[in-house]
């Protein structure tokens, strides 16, 4: 049986004015069916670029080498790095779905939320208009939107940020994807809503046995939901392993820094450690580096 996703020596560079910049440097990892992996790192570490390469959504000036093997059934593999346009059109939004950071820029403001989900269902699942409408109501119920039937006729500007993100999640899972990529899905939301959205993604992952790649900069945010964690720094994968291991006993100085630099981990009135403190070799002012792993949802 093949893993759901197997990345082998993925290298991504961007060329501009004859100058080449490497954004991702020969990273390798694997994601199993039904597993949620958190890809963690600061902004600019290469997380989103890595995920966008899976769907061939990078700009033309991007150069890619290495392999991205995807197998939705555990039997046949597709190399996403080398697949043609017709093959990718069958995979995008169908077998691999993506939730982006800001739902307001992902949803079309001139179409109702219901129409946008129904369009995906009719395109990939070939449902009739009536069947697509009924399925959309079911999806809106699953993502816990209030009054799912009324939500069909609402426009994105009429919904709160959390509700818009739930519509995006409904659209993402509408075709029962094998892999769901969630790219900072809670960044644009207030703290009180973030946890509920992540709990929802975890609930749906378990229900449909999806593989989920959760991209975030916050290690503490994934403590309750991630099965495994991969930490990226300046385009390199510096540490991977089970979530319990990474959160309770980080080995790489950068992972230690991400945990220690959380405001919640430090006492008020004390200087907040910086990532540079750990990577420079200086002894940082620190409290407990470990993050207790909360029980699975």
List the helices and strands and how they pair.
Layout: E1 5-16, E2 19-31, E3 36-40, H1 47-54, E4 62-70, E5 78-79, H2 85-91, E6 96-99, H3 103-106, H4 113-124, H5 129-142, H6 148-151, H7 161-173, E7 179-183, H8 191-208, E8 211-216, E9 228-233, E10 236-242, H9 243-248, H10 253-260, H11 275-279
Parallel strand pairs: 3-8, 3-9, 6-7, 7-8
Antiparallel strand pairs: 1-2, 1-4, 4-5, 9-10
How would you characterize the overall build of this protein?
This protein has 297 residues and is an alpha/beta fold. The protein contains 11 helices and 10 strands. The protein has helices at residues 47-54, 85-91, 103-106, 113-124, 129-142, 148-151, 161-173, 191-208, 243-248, 253-260, 275-279, and strands at residues 5-16, 19-31, 36-40, 62-70, 78-79, 96-99, 179-183, 211-216, 228-233, 236-242. The strands form 2 sheets. The protein has a 6-stranded mixed sheet, with helices on both faces. A 4-stranded antiparallel sheet has the order 2-1-4-5, with helices on one face. Helix 5 (129-142) crosses helix 7 (161-173) and helix 7 packs parallel to helix 8 (191-208). The longest helix is centred in the last third of the chain and has 18 residues, at 191-208. The chain is globular. Mean pLDDT is 88; it is low at 282-297.
